[in-house]
Amino acid sequence: MTTHTIPKPLFSYRKYWAKRFGIAPYLPMSRAEMDALGWDSCDVILVSGDAYIDHPSFGMALVGRLLEAQGFRVGIICQPDWQSAKSFKVLGKPNLFFGVTAGNMDSMVNRYTSDRKIRSDDAYTPNAEPNKRPDHAVVVYAQRCREAYRDANVIIGSIEASLRRIAHYDYWSDKVRRSVLPDSKADMLIFGNAERAIVALAHRLGAGEPIGEIRDLRGTAFMVPRGWLPAADWSEVDSTEVDSPGPLLRHLNPYDVEPEKGSESACASGAAPGKAQVIEFKSVARMPRLDRSRTAIRLPSYEQVVADPVLYAHASRTFHLESNPGNARALIQAHGERDVWLNPPPIPLTTPEMDEVFAAPFQRKPHPSYGDAKIPAFEMIRFSINIMRGCFGGCTFCSITEHEGRIIQSRSEASILHEIEEIRDKTPGFTGTISDLGGPTANMYRLACKDPKIESSCRRLSCVFPGVCENLNTDHGSLIALYRKARAVRGVKRVLVSSGLRYDLAVRSPEYIKELVTHHVGGYLKIAPEHTEVGPLAHMMKPAMKSYDEFKRLFEKFSKEAGKEQYLIPYFIAAHPGTTDADMLNLALWLKENNFRLDQVQTFLPTPMAIATAMYHTERNPLKKVTRSSAPVPIVRSGRQRRLHKAFLRYHDAENWPLLRDALRAMGRADLIGNGKKHLIPSFQPPGTGLRHQEARHAKASPRAPARLAQKSSGKR
């Protein structure tokens, strides 16, 4: 087995025999559509929690059209009734595999707020109708596919599967869950950008190769027997030898009938039978240098990370250090008597490959079966263009880097300009405005390490924290040229940039800021400092506020020169790991001083596999070497404190004043309560406001208090 670092070009495969059926107007969602195309079966059936929108911004359509370009017949099952296997049989059994995805979003993030309350709508469903997908959709859909056809190959992917490929903390159940692989009973998981793996897999299955023998595709994970290695020349290294966390809690193997040779028994060492031992891992002689391409790192097992927060944080740190496709090693994590095996991440697509992926014959609109129903996610992106993917920012609360990688994959100018023309010519309702020319980060287009050798060997988690790496090319010239050419396309009146951008990169190119501000801001520009205080920013891996201040100065300068009245809209996060009440108070004072009154605010939501989630769960910081003596990370867990941190961001809302008054008094800052300009909140309370806090406080004192208060507020006696 080998996982090649020089990949086979994506469009160099000989097309599958079914290419003779040609291109489908829409990938079929029914037997009637299959009959119209002359198909007796589908080679691949994609199952998704989203509605089918034939547009490159939706992963299901992108992958489906890519497989179609390889000659495969691809059908789609969208938002099936998961209560039985019946809905999973509508297109018959796929000849090669089911490809299961939760959709563009994680199903739990899609369905629940950061306060664990169920959302009232779903942007990826016709008319935003809620409850059209189950919790943990990948697991449920995969199990139903298996029930429908027990011998069908089942492949799981998308961001939900990708971010659950190893044992992970699940915020909604407040526990560590197993890898999604054993729970879904899938044959294989494809993580990250799936194009290379899914094309190679489809062709190999089409050639008759059993899926159980396909073990060498980068970007794939699968279950293997405990201790399995691909070949005799492979080596396994324990993660504690790579980055030792210090004294470890070693839990006894329940299947061991006698102690390991050369070691004391549990009883002889003073530990009671069945109890964990504390083992001190001492320094040993340096191991011989191993071939990284034939080395696998064994992470602490699922059972260990469930029981030991230090090992969870250590596993998170090791996982993220092995994320560069240029030097990452395979990873192993035991789940009971079997191992989850993860091959190294996929090799990024080249620009010509990206161009061809986006050149598929997308209809750029929802499937006709939805009629006139509005799908909010489509309405939001119908006139926008994705110019790149990936992010080297590494923000700890964000999952883009874990999913798309930190190496930027950019499309060519010609490809992007052609898509603008496609929007102009194909998309109903186009009036001349491109709503966004961006990506995960709007201004990382064509930015990369100056030296490919350095890039392939780097183990930094961010190219821009704690400062911009000296090896990073920050020249925005290519993006400026693209903006100018996009504005010149016939029929285009305006091109906006709505994606978030890295202002610490932008300030290195004042010419870019001038171009952006003069031509591409629609009055308001969203930007995300996330916080003002050093502590939270360090735990987020975000730049200090001096970069924001410099960007703001240039933004205002060039807006004035252009004769435009434009404003920055900053975004901030409440209750992020590493944040104290004092940090949120200082942020509130900064907001008041700068006359910001935020309408929408974000409370930290721990998503699977993010570094900040590991901080939240373990109270350790995986950005540094994790030991049992590591300083604890301040964590906001209680509902009251989370509401308080959110209230500081909306200090101007009278509903929050009672909660803030109580907190300020407890913090010894009652001097900020008053009716002058120097005060944060007033001492008076407008009639009919602040009732939520009063109800909560009375409920704590007496279970009958909320009812009495409600009666009083409604005028009842």
Fold and architecture overview:
By secondary structure, the chain is an alpha/beta fold. It has three domains: 17-227 and 333-342, Cobalamin-binding domain (Rossmann fold), CATH 3.40.50; 382-652, pyruvate-formate lyase- activating enzyme (Alpha-Beta Horseshoe); 653-717, no CATH class. 32% of the residues lie in helices and 13% in strands. It is built from 26 helices and 25 strands. Strands 3-1-4-5-8-9-15-14-13-10 form a ten-stranded mixed sheet, sandwiched between helices. It has a three-stranded parallel sheet with strand order 23-24-25. A two-stranded antiparallel ribbon has the order 2-16. A hairpin with a 2-residue loop joins β14 and β15 (338-342). α10 packs antiparallel against α22 (611-618) and α16 packs parallel to α18 (510-519). The N and C termini lie far apart (79 Å).
CATH class of the largest domain: Alpha Beta
Instruction: Please bin the fraction of helical residues.
Output: 25-40%
Largest sheet: 10 strands, mixed
The CATH topology of the largest domain turns out to be: pyruvate-formate lyase- activating enzyme
- How are the strands ordered across the major sheet? 3-1-4-5-8-9-15-14-13-10
- Give me the CATH architecture of the largest domain, please: Alpha-Beta Horseshoe
Cα-based radius of gyration, to the nearest Å? 27 Å
N- to C-terminal separation? 79 Å
What's the total number of strands?
25
